[in-house]
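Notes, Module 5: Reading structure tokens.

Key idea: the token line is not a picture. It is a compressed description, and you learn to read it the same way you learned to read a sequence, by spotting repeated patterns. We will look at two proteins. The first is printed below with its tokens.
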Amino acid sequence: MAEPTPRSTRGIALLLAAMSALGPFSIDTYLPSFHDIGEKLQATPLQVQQTLSAYLLSFALMTLWHGAIADRFGRRKVLLVALALFALASLGCMLASRIEILWFWRAMQGVTAGAGIVISRAIVRDLYDGAAAQRLMSQITMMFALAPAIAPVIGGWLQTLFGWRSVFAFLVLATSALWLACWKLLPETLAPAKRQSLRPAYLGSTYWKVLTSPAFLTACAALSLNFGGFFLYILSAPVFLMQHLGVPETGFLWLFGPGMGGLVCGSWLSGRLAGKVSLPRTIALGYAAMGAAASINLLLNLALPPGLPWSVLPIFIYTLGMSLAMPCLTLFALDPFPDQRGLAASCQTFLQSGFNGLVAALLAPALWGSTLTLSLGMAGLMLAGAGFAQLHQRLRLIPG
């Protein structure tokens, strides 16, 4: 595979980042509307929170299949169909008249949104290897990070000016624009000769091979736990920002600005280190930053009352370390399966999304009662992630 130049990868990185960001964007944009949705649809806060759980759980279940379908029919066709269906589901959310209807259409959004993040990872490995793949993955993460940073800001202003339905109208328009861009610009990266079967026997044996691989599972666990330390704050954003820190509906940038700023900086640094610093060493640097952030977060919450800016500063350091390690751990997860990259990417996203669903349903509501308990949650998830990353490195050193 050819070594890419910055010019040759910038366009494809932007397009893949936009597709990867669709899922997180559809989470973050409507967070400022939770209160309005509850009032207009006569739903309790827990019922509104369940619109997020429905999305995350259906997202996790379907991501298990996006990659296998893309391995069979090609990347481009599957992405175009998924984007069209996501736009339709967003329209259903916009027109929902009861909370139960919104649950259904949010679940339908989750079914289709995962195609972008799964297939974009497979496309990276279709095109490039080694340091080149790490650089492209870092570029995608860096550009992807901008979307969740601006999503709650856009959602806050749409909510303030037009109400909650306008958020889903915006998603319909944005997804339609992305579909047109993919239709015109996205090439097919999987040759017909390399496509895989959807026969049940083949799929069963392949899923078993991937999902019982200790090296794959430990890399995925590290990725999921690392992200969980930050995702805990995303899910708790309405409580963390509006109740604990006293910011208005339009002030979600106080959380998403530092968080996504750290993602951008860490991804840029990971790309700069590609080919110069080994992947295990880059992962170790990422954990050093995450460990420092979690420690500072705990100390600040023990020493000071909740307030700005000190309650959000550690999040920048944490996401910097997380995104520094993320491309390397992702490559380690996919590399053992060169002929089933789409399916392996599906399994990786399924495991991470499933864990995100558990964080949304169980951890976030249990911990968002105070900023101290949130900081303890971040520290605990980071330590567990570091343990799995260390175990993964040991497994890689075992011959065979």
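Here is the second protein, with the sequence above and the tokens below, as before.
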Amino acid sequence: MWWWLRPLLFRLDAEQAHRIALALAARWSKVFSGELSAGDPARSASLRVEAMGLQFPNPIGLAAGLDKDAEAVPLWQRLGFGFVEVGTVTALAQPGNPQPRLFRLPADAALVNRMGFNNAGAEAMAVRLTRLRERAILQVPVGVNLGKSKVTAAEQAPEDYRRSCELLAELSDYLVVNISSPNTPGLRDLQTVEQVQRLVDAVQGPNQRLARPRPVLLKLAPDLADEDAIACAHAALEAGCAGLILTNTTVRLEQLSRPQAGLSGGLSGRPLFARSTALLAQVRAAVGPGPVLIGTGGIFLPEDVAAKRDAGADLVQVYTGLIYRGPGLVRELLRAKRGLALRR
């Protein structure tokens, strides 16, 4: 069905197609909200991963950015994802950056986005996740990716993240501190040892007051030098993070096969794979086997999953590959079983 539907969607503006697909996913989620079958191959005991004190039915997750407001979680778990990360969500609702702000680059199997954390805000997500929890619909771990509101000054960023955490931590299975999107002015400037410690401390305040504190992860950019990424990783772990997500999108567009005059934003997809995987390996070597690392960036094929796992990933996430290869991608990756054996 996807190979029939994709040409129609790809004729539309990328963001318009995204809105249509997400609206359909949200509608289908109301239909596919029942209990998952124990016989589902995506729930095979051989695929299970235990990490951060959580049980993941399989190691393939949906990356943040596709479902910013947690509109279609039941469908994502029905497609076979072993976990779902919603957001990026900010303390304040915001429209994001001016359009156009999402671009397909089929020649490179890539996307460029400058969305700017468009979302309905932490309070709206809290309402939606509460409904899902009350109905016992969520059957895979759900992470919440937290970002900084655009109108919040950098010096007030800790309070902004703290507010989102207060609203959403208890409704999540894990939390992500996202300081690596290139589309919120000044956000990547927070990728320093001092700022990482401040932000993680701010989130850990309300988180540690919960009866069951949630694991916290830090998401970093691929454009950091190796030594800077490693320094931020150590700072995050010392502040109580369970691990890291590597990596967000890159602003290095010169690697595209065709020049794109005037194009700016975060590049994802195949061109991101090599750098994100290399940085993942560097961080794993630096932090050792203990912390949880989630590898994301450019996963399209079973071989890509295997490469991320070989580089040290406990879990992996997909996004752009799903846009190009369709909703059957997850089960295709799971059927191949490459890289899905327990890493440790």
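Summary for the second protein:
- Residues 148 and 271 are 27 Å apart (CA to CA).
- The mean pLDDT is 93.
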